[in-house]
Amino acid sequence: MKLKKNFLWGNSVSSMQTEGAWNEGGKGMSVYDIREASECSSDWKVATDSYHRYTEDFDYMQQLGMNCYRFQISWSRVNPDGDGVFNEEGIRFYDQFIDDLLERGIEPMICLYHFDMPLNLARKYHGFKDRRVIEPFVNFGKEMMRRFAQKVKYWITFNEQNLYHIPEAFKISGYQEGNQTLEDLYYIQHHVMMCHAYLANFLHHNYPTCQIGGMVAYQEIYPATCKPEDIFMARKLDEFLNHNLLEVFANGKYSGEVTAYMKQNQLMHIICEGDLEELAKVTSDFLSFSYYASTTVNSEMADESTPVNFYMNQAKQSNPYLESTQWDWQIDPLGFRNIINKLYHRYKLPVFPIENGIGVIESWDGKNEIQDDYRIEYHKKHLQAMQEAILLDGADVMGYLGWGLIDILSSQGDMRKRYGVVYVNRENHELKDLKRVPKKSFWWLQQVIKSNGEIM
After folding, report:
1. Catalytic residue list contains 355
2. Which whole number is the average pLDDT over 399-422?
3. What whole-number percentage of the chain has pLDDT above 70?
4. Between the CA of residue 32 and those of 179, 229, 290, 363, 411, what are the distances in Å?
5. Which superfamily, per CATH, for 8-450?
């Protein structure tokens, strides 16, 4: 029993964590371009300078044997104001970018939005809080599909779409001001889902050879004890944060439990005439997700009046049976296997884990190879868990994409938190020479991919 021959091995990134060139090539301003550096974070102006150096990164991916690369098209690079005239120079950049991937035998996978709202729309409408942002985003997505669908088979609209169901949404949706109310949160999550629906339906209708799926940040949630209230809370969080979206991706409708909650809390006015009919047309070719860690919830830590979507702010606690990273993310390969099985056996769609990895503080002495055995151990255990889900449990898994396997800025702009099997020589406040240097894990991963997962 082996992984299928066309199994996709690769890497995932966002534009703002890699590209740099914040004011080059006709790019407009995004919300990230005005964020300033702090003690433990960089600004976003250079990142890892992949705008100028991406061919070097592609060469490393080719050397690893990767055959898939998920990247993001920066909305403000191809449409500087978000809703104005398209920037042909920015579009030409991605056109060549895609060609350079294909020349190396690497299948491109496009993500359309990874938290970096064009600044103009954030200031004008407060991002996805306002329904008026749906039209410009859909126009952007349709134009990218028209330009690139002949070359790019795999698409997702939003990175980790379920993050728009929790307070994190107020940081990543272009929300500039407001009271961060439950109503605002449901506006954001519904508007984001409508954007996905319009674009998924457009792609399927016009480019039937392409594939598109939804993506969630799936964090396995365990009850702290066998107390029924803990089990109920963990299940309810899974339904609201994960299955509410997955039901749309797979079956074209929101979770009945979440819809009932919306009715009870006077939130149904958020859904406009015709929305449910558009959602009903949605189908997915696969379900994708990120996975880094699991978490645990304790019902005694949450106030009874706390909305379900806000539970994690109060009820999250550490699991005493798991080890943690330097960022207190708990390492749980079995949770990875469990999620793959839940997704596949409930929804009967191919599953695609497109982010996985461990962030670690690392430094390079300028001479010796970084001995990152901890990274090898992390990926090995997760890959073994994935193989068990496939070969023992019967799940259909398309591939495995690690996160930032050539070092990039973290989601908070912290270059100390490194995920890569290739070191990038820069720090938060010192760019250095940005040299790319393979770590010990590079050679290990090369053998894993070359053997299609047989050699670990």
Report:
1. yes
2. 98
3. 100
4. 21, 40, 22, 26, 11
5. Glycosidases (3.20.20.80)
Q: What DSSP line would sit under 112-125, residue for residue?
A: EESS--BHHHHHHH
Chain segment 379-396, per-residue pLDDT in tens = 999 999 999 999 999 999
Of 109, 119, 179, 185, nearest to 149 (Cα)?
109
Q: How far is CA 439 from CA 363, 422, 424, in A?
A: 11, 6, 10
- Told to judge if 300 belongs to the known catalytic residues of this protein, a careful annotator would answer no
CA–CA gap between residue 180 and residue 451 (Å, rounded) = 49
* Annotated catalytic residue within 19, 107, 239, 355: 355
Is 279 in contact with 250 (CB distance < 8 Å)?
A: no
DSSP-derived 3-state class of residue 215: strand
Q: Confirm whether pTM is higher than 0.90.
A: yes
CA 111 – CA 92 distance, rounded (Å): 17
Q: Could you state, in order of their start, the residue ranges of all structural domains in the chain?
A: 8-450
Write down the residue that tokens 């984001």 correspond to: 192
Active-site entry in 19, 107, 160, 247: 160
140 secondary structure, DSSP code: H
Please name the residues in contact with 166: beta carbons below 8 A apart, sequence gap of 6 or more.
185, 241, 309, 310, 312
Q: Which two tokens stand for residue 336?
A: 């990875």
Query: For 51-93, what is each residue's pLDDT tens digit?
Result: 999 999 999 999 999 999 999 999 999 999 999 999 999 999 9
> What percentage of the chain exceeds 90 in pLDDT?
99
Report residue 153 as tokens.
């088979």
**pLDDT the model gives residue 304:** 87
